[in-house]
Design brief:
Distance between the termini: 12 Å
Number of helices: 11
CATH architecture of the largest domain: 2-Layer Sandwich
CATH topology of the largest domain: Ribosomal Protein S5, domain 2
CATH class of the largest domain: Alpha Beta
């Protein structure tokens, strides 16, 4: 079987109001070069190499074995730029990688749409997976196994900044913080904001982003567990910062900024707002269409 090369981007889901429906691909990549081997082996570089190379608790290999149990062992060379447990879509990238590897080395013959839907079923919601698969800003809906998605905005030059605390947050814990029901007013506010959010990306309307990222569904309830969010939200609208949102379920915070705005004052403002909390700021950009293989 021919080798397989994959490059899958990090993603930031929700972008405020687009809960479980909106995702943004970021130019931080999980890159895999896969060949058949005598036994499973992973050589990992980049972020969290020990976790990425773990053969026993590895979502890529679990997905591969489950999807294609008769497929051969693999030798993987993995370079990871995606922060783990930080709301940056690491599980979506791993699931898509596992499905694509299983399809290739198991000769399953899945179409691109079937690969997307298989990964979404395993993730349970489409936002991160669809953005990872398509790139750009992707909106998606899932009905049973069927996933419908549209993507745009991958040519926008907006600067992305990820502010990441030292401690990760499990998605299950973040989801447990949410209420079971919402008021009509909150639902309507999020529908309105999400419509503006789509327009902002589709029409390159950065001036809409501050209003378009207002959320009533998940961010207020996750703020206590994601302390960088309430600290950094007041920065939106200043220093060329278009908007501030939780990245996925957190705890990372995504800032979308004017690419022409000086970066150092923004970094200084983030540090001041964080009030001494340990954090890392990563600069990146919107990733283009992304599911690559050879």
């Amino acid at each position: 079987m021919d080798p397989l090369h994959l490059q899958l981007p990090a993603t930031s889901a929700n972008l405020g109001p687009g809960f479980d429906a909106v995702g943004l691909a970021m130019a931080l990549y999980l890159t895999i070069d896969a060949t058949e081997g005598q036994q499973f082996q992973i050589e990992a570089t980049g972020r969290n190499p020990d976790l990425v190379a773990d053969l026993d608790r590895n979502l890529i290999l679990e997905t591969y074995r489950d999807l294609a149990p008769e497929a051969p062992p693999l030798h993987l060379k993995v370079h990871n730029e995606i922060p783990l447990g930080m709301g940056c879509g690491s599980s979506a990238a791993a699931l898509l990688a596992g499905v694509q590897l299983g399809n290739h080395f198991g000769a399953l013959g899945l179409t691109a749409q079937q690969i997307l839907e298989e990964a979404c079923m395993r993730e349970g919601h489409p936002d991160n997976v669809a953005a990872c698969f398509h790139g750009g800003m992707t909106v998606s809906a899932m009905h049973g196994r069927k996933v419908t998605a549209a993507t745009f905005g991958d040519r926008l030059d907006w600067r992305l900044l990820l502010a990441m605390p030292a401690t990760s947050l499990a998605t299950e814990k973040a989801r447990a913080l949410l209420p079971a029901t919402y008021s009509r007013a909150d639902a309507v506010a999020n529908i309105q904001a999400t419509a503006l959010l789509v327009a902002a990306f589709a029409q390159n309307r950065a001036e809409l982003l501050r209003t378009a990222t207002a959320d009533h569904i998940h961010q207020p309830f996750r703020a206590e567990a994601c302390s960088l969010l309430p600290a950094l939200l007041p920065l939106a609208g200043s220093l060329g910062i278009y908007c501030v949102t939780l990245s996925g379920a957190g705890p990372s915070v995504l800032l979308i900024t004017d690419p022409a705005a000086p970066l150092e004052p923004i970094r200084t403002a983030i540090a001041g707002a964080a009030c001494g909390n340990v954090f890392e700021v990563v600069e990146t950009s919107i990733a283009a269409a992304s599911l690559r293989h050879a």
